[in-house]
Specification:
This protein has about 375 residues and is of the alpha/beta class. The strands form 4 sheets. It has a 7-stranded parallel sheet, with helices on both faces. Strands 10-11-12-7-13-14 form a 6-stranded mixed sheet, with helices on one face. A two-stranded antiparallel sheet has the order 8-9. Helix content is about 35%, strand content about 30%.
């Protein structure tokens, strides 16, 4: 039994705890400052109610842990990462926050344990899938990553329901976005470059959001003509969010925007996650394109219905933790998502959510 701590008992953290506790070979400790949130954690996991904004106190609670999975809000990323390093535990997180990920990378230097940030859906699985396609080409031209967690039955003007962290959504809609444009590494504004496309007869829009590329910009710098990440929504969503953030100035009043969204936009478990990656370039001297497409729907976990965004995010980080525990990933230093083989994720017991019928696994072979 390996001891794994999950910091954060929200929608994703609780799902991670259920998956790991149900596996039978992890002793799970869930830490959160909210006793109310901890009351809903899988009873097979232990819980500890404590403040998580003090790295020294948190490090004591993490003593003896094999690994720490950080599912806390993005602004606590560096605190939890520092505590994990002090405790001598491996560190994994889900953050899409670019600045926090850079701090984690610095903490990984000369570390005796592994630091693996951005292990969720996007960044995370989408990065792994994109890199797998990139390796099929001799020369890369365009790499496009698109991901969306969408309500299956939208019924408001935003065409959206809350499916994960409201703080995270606001952050990715506000912060600058990394991209490679005509061979140059650039920052581009969020909510811009809106495009429309159809998939299975449904029309979607996609626009720039922050953090989804993980380390791909650095990995592919000088090796690709264009690289970008955009979030998928139903048409009309971006225009309304731009009005709220820019015209009404709510990008400077994020707590107010969070309060408005959480009291006006219902949450839902009836969602679908769309993963859509397109890579073009030269292959055997010919201009070719390859595409990875996957849809994941809400489904039960340990007898409880979980949203698609919960199971794809939790499934991805749990699969990475498994690979780390099995010795199939480096045990020290900074580990990129690109260092993780797609076939290993899809073949993992937790990664199965991405390949329920093995269709995606066959595509990766």
């Amino acid at each position: 039994m390996r001891k794994a701590a999950v910091v954060g008992a929200g929608k994703i953290g609780s799902t991670i705890a259920s998956l790991l506790a149900g596996a039978g070979d992890y002793e799970v400790l869930v830490i959160d400052q909210s006793a109310e949130a901890l009351a809903g954690i899988d009873p097979r996991a232990r819980t500890a109610a404590m403040a998580i904004d003090d790295p020294a106190a948190l490090a004591k609670a993490l003593a003896g842990c094999f690994a720490v999975v950080n599912a806390a809000p993005y602004h606590l990323t560096t605190v939890v990462a520092q505590a994990a390093k002090t405790a001598g535990a491996h560190y994994l997180d889900l953050t899409e926050d670019v600045a926090a990920s850079r701090v984690v990378r610095d903490l990984a230097k000369q570390s005796k344990t592994a630091f693996i940030p951005q292990c969720g859906l996007a960044p995370g699985f989408i990065t792994i899938a994109a890199w797998d396609l990139c390796k099929h080409f001799e020369e890369l031209h365009d790499v496009r990553l698109r991901v969306g967690a969408l309500p299956r039955y939208p019924s408001n003007a935003l065409n959206y329901n809350l499916t994960w962290s409201t703080d995270g959504v606001i952050n990715e809609y506000c912060e600058p976005c990394e991209a490679i444009v005509e061979g140059r590494l650039r920052e581009v504004p969020a909510l811009e470059e809106c495009e429309e496309f159809s998939l299975d007869g449904v029309t979607y829009e996609a626009f720039n959001t922050s953090g989804g590329l993980g380390t791909l910009c650095q990995t592919l710098d000088g090796k690709v003509r264009n690289l970008n990440y955009r979030t998928i929504r139903y048409p009309g969503h971006a225009a309304i969010m731009k009005a709220l953030l820019n015209d009404l100035g709510l990008r400077n009043r994020r707590p107010l925007l969070k309060d408005i969204l959480e009291n006006a936009v219902p949450a839902t478990l009836q969602d679908v996650v769309i993963v859509f990656v397109t890579v073009s370039g030269l292959k055997d001297g010919r201009l070719m394109q390859e595409t990875y497409v996957n849809k994941v729907f809400a489904q039960p976990v340990a007898g409880e219905m979980k949203s698609a965004i919960q199971i794809t995010t939790a499934g991805a980080v749990c699969a990475v933790l498994d690979l780390l525990a099995e010795g199939r990933l480096p045990q020290t230093g900074f580990i990129r998502q690109e260092d993780i083989p797609l076939a290993d994720i899809l073949g993992n017991r937790f990664g199965r959510f991405y390949a329920p019928d093995q269709q995606a696994l066959r595509a990766a072979e």
